[in-house]
Amino acid sequence: MRTARQAVLWGYVLLIENPMRIIRLDNIPVTFEAGSESDLYARNLTLLGDASEVLPTISVNVRTTLNDLPRFKNGRISDIIKATVSLNSVHSSGSYELPISVTTTIGEIDSLPTDSAVISVDNLVERTIPIHAELVGELPEGYWHGDPVLLTNSVVVRGAESEISRIAKALCLIDLSGKTDAINASYTLGLYDNADESIPISVIVGVLPSVTVNLEILPTLEYKVEANIVGENNLKTIYEICDVTVTPSTITLVGEAELLSQIDENKLSLDVIDVTGIDGECVITRSVQLNGIPNDVFILGGDTKFTVSIEIREKIIEKSFENVPVNILNEDLQHYQYSYMPSNDSNIPTCTVTIKGKASLVNSITYDDLRPVFSVSGLSVGLHENLIPKLSLISSYNLEINVTPISCRITEPSPKPKPPLSSN
Predict the structure, then answer these.
(1) How far, in Å, CA of 315 to CA of 297, rounded?
(2) Which of 33, 124, 143, 323 could disulfide-link to 84, CB 3.0 to 4.6 Å?
């Protein structure tokens, strides 16, 4: 009975008296007082670092009635507790320890374990930063790209002097992978220092604008350039063009696909080089122009001049002389008999001589100039094949000479029969 009375009495006290309680609230975010940062900008100052990282979270002890305690559990703490820092007292760059002001819509603030925040302020400056474009990736084979054209070549940024001074350039990366059409697009920018290290965009005040880039992309055509020579049939009969070199021999044409499809070897030609009347060996070198390139098609590299070298030399001809008699040396007719193959009716061996060389020299050689010889000295009795006669008279000329081999059979003569003995 006594315990029940005490419980009723205690409930009456709670209901009528509503005693005070202290509640601890943790992780309360601290923000800047509304308009403080704008006022700081107006004074050409700015915070160093991100506001969400500069300001701490704090704990707050709130004194409130027992009846209001459930409201802290059921409501949003951010709607109840406000912790702010004012920047009104900041008028120059430097480090500041500023008081934290806390308000509550329920009860009253009892105490703050942390009652101040340390911030750093720098001068707010404005700089013009050059914009660079960097191409990454590769176009598909058979395509060309021009240089990127930026709608603007610089961007104005604002921020803390110590951080903005590090920025050396704003960079847009243009990926060429798989591109076959011209690019006209807007690209976001990145910030970099002189060492090409990335600088976070958060160092600037406001938004970093994008940049519009135009980049021409066109198909290409590999084209083999041929010399345009006339008069070759009017060279002296013993002369011919033995080599023609065009430098460069291959070019890359760039243009719209429809224009490139209309180009063939008959439409593009070099200036004519006439070799009519040239009599003698020589090398002709000419600088010529390529003609017939359609409008809106260009040569990669831009040069339309070509060097043509034409080498004119005597024709190399081949001439054969058949049944040429071979002069045999050092026969020992007292002890041996000789027979040759092939040979003429007089058992004089013959061969075929083939001569290859410059036409003027080969044409000047006659049968009388061919005096092949072969020495049988040292050959023993028997059949000797593949004997190559020598041509000493013309072997010193710059000619390619081929002489067919002969064969020689050496035998001993039959002994003469002895005369019959006389009966006397």
Answers:
(1) 42
(2) 33
Does residue 383 contact residue 407 with C-beta atoms inside 8 Å? yes
Task: State in Å, rounded, how far the first CA of the chain is from the last one.
Answer: 200
- Per-residue tokens: 338: 């000789």
CB 187 within 8 A of CB 171: no
**What is the rounded CA–CA span in Å between residue 96 and residue 203?**
20
Task: For the chain of 424 residues, list the mean pLDDT of each consecutive stretch of 10.
Answer: 54 65 91 89 89 86 89 85 92 93 91 90 94 96 96 94 94 95 95 94 90 96 92 88 94 93 81 90 93 90 89 94 95 93 93 93 90 94 95 75 95 74 59
Q: Kindly write down the DSSP assignment for every residue of 166-214, as one continuous string.
A: T--EEEEEEE-TT--S-EEEEE--EEE-TT--EE-GGGBSS----EEEE
Buried b / exposed e over 27-37, threshold 16 CB at 10 Å, is ebebebeeebb
Please tell me the pTM assigned to this model: 0.66
342/284 Cα distance (integer angstroms) = 49
